[in-house]
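Lab meeting, action items carried over

1. Structure of the two-component assembly. Owner: GW. Status: complete.
Input record:
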Amino acid sequence: MAAKPPCSGPLATLPFAMADTPQPPTALPTAADVDAAANRLAGVALRTPLISSPVLDAAIGARVFLKAETLQRTGSFKFRGAYNKLSTIPADQRSGGVVAYSSGNHAQGVAAAAQVLGMPAVIVMPSDAPRSKRERTAALGAEVVLYDREREDRTAIASGIAAKRGAVVVPPFDDPMVIAGQGTVGREIIEDLTALGLAPDVVIVGASGGGLIAGIALAIKARAPGAKFYSAEPEGFDDTARSFRSGKREANARMSSICDALMSNTPGAITFEINRRLVGEGISASDAEVGRAVAFAFRELKLVVEPGGAIGLAALLAGKLDVKGKVVVGVLSGGNVDAELFHQLVA
Amino acid sequence: MAAKPPCSGPLATLPFAMADTPQPPTALPTAADVDAAANRLAGVALRTPLISSPVLDAAIGARVFLKAETLQRTGSFKFRGAYNKLSTIPADQRSGGVVAYSSGNHAQGVAAAAQVLGMPAVIVMPSDAPRSKRERTAALGAEVVLYDREREDRTAIASGIAAKRGAVVVPPFDDPMVIAGQGTVGREIIEDLTALGLAPDVVIVGASGGGLIAGIALAIKARAPGAKFYSAEPEGFDDTARSFRSGKREANARMSSICDALMSNTPGAITFEINRRLVGEGISASDAEVGRAVAFAFRELKLVVEPGGAIGLAALLAGKLDVKGKVVVGVLSGGNVDAELFHQLVA
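Predicted assembly:
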């Protein structure tokens, strides 16, 4: 085992190895990496509010706080990880720009971060991604390359572009600096709760590749080790929950979900290594339950939340966990939803 | 002129008399009354976030902050004034409950405040108020009495009910304690801006009866006397702006507006006395401009804002004021909008 790294967090001294696909040890991000990310993001990312609502508390029977990352730049938390990652690219490697593959929110996050930093960006997006997400990515100055989600490999396409242009690939979740950037969401949550004299009992975060929940768990567990974490996923896309149960990274059978932001096929290698230890348990919600959560957010909270961003709220409202009387934290992770789908869900 | 009162604010020593309808002097609320209201509301009203957005700043060409009272209890600022007013009703007068007349948001604010304080509430509402507002008022435990806005006098109906039941009438705006309660919006704005090291150059607040802008002006002018205030109103319902110009309270010609929350016929006596001195100038926006602001809030800010709640944002986005490079504050005053109308505006 290597010498103890200078920045220690809950995972910093753990060896890193995948149960199913042995790989060389990789440095896992730590709570200190989240702190460093917070310094980079200060004055660039928005500090989003931690929302509470008596109606929500009554509906759940708990003291509920929702981190409104819907109000973040580009309408989701993804700007945080992207900007943190891009900020760590050495100056002499920036001219080739960046390449990212994404169903939408990561695309906008990377495009916006590249724009702020003056770097060119190519985004590889599935051709069935919501129109609003494609258009907004292009509006942020990125070049959009579409691919067929059923037949083509986005990772290979992105790698090809990167090799040709000398660009850096920005992975959507399985990267220490991306995870650390997303972790600033958790850092702000714990700071705001601490200011209220509270500690979280339960934290529920949506999982696709698992970068957001991994980062949040790093940040919160470092200051509130007693917090119990759950991943939330769409039914049928519960690869994270099944991976927790089997102890190795499981894949989803291909199918569609209302939650276009949560359709990663399998947990990341780095994210799963963090999440299996700090999270360890997952719940899921149906499309109908997600729709009801989007409608609840519209009607009662006056917030625009996209289906994937409402997965944790959906699980809470559907009573998937017994959280009575507890301090519960959820994350509204994104709000990029087309007007037509939004209307179908809230009408 | 009376001796200087113990709690002095920008208006505390001014005599109160209407230019058009002479009345006995009435105590005007002061910034100290707003401070007292803030103490009563602490832990009961939500402290709503002051939202910023790079996209919004770019659209306006200024540094813009929006106070999201859409996220307040009952979905608008009205809970603040109602709760402050009800809290000052002596214990021996509470059993008869309260009566209020309102096109919707004040109704919910009074109903919720009465529910928190355990008082019965009757709400007199126009029969053409949005269904969501009627239903939500009833859901808060209030008795709803409908009236015809074209043919009946809501004030008389409310007074009749109050006399019969021994209830206290809670005016929607023209009451010192209601104004002081709404002023806590301004108190939070100036606290949050001060924490950012900023002072407001321009403040734009929607005006119907004028209670919200009067309260906010009291609170902000006490700490940032250089802030320039503007009322914002729907075209055709610009009674406040016309009253500023003529120096006396003007009335609107009856017509309809997309802003159902901003259809008061004339400024209040107390509110106008405050606003003529602290505001003094008003702008307006068309229904189409308001609709574009609601759509902008959906698409770019991920916030659900009702038309009346978006009037100030509408005026800003439409370029009604030259605010280039300034620190500009707006208030998103409410988010209670039916799903169908919302879809029409954002689609």
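2. GW to write a short summary for the group page. Key points so far: The domain at 78-174 of chain B is CATH 3.40.50.1100 (Rossmann fold). Residues 176-195 of chain B form the longest helix (20 residues).
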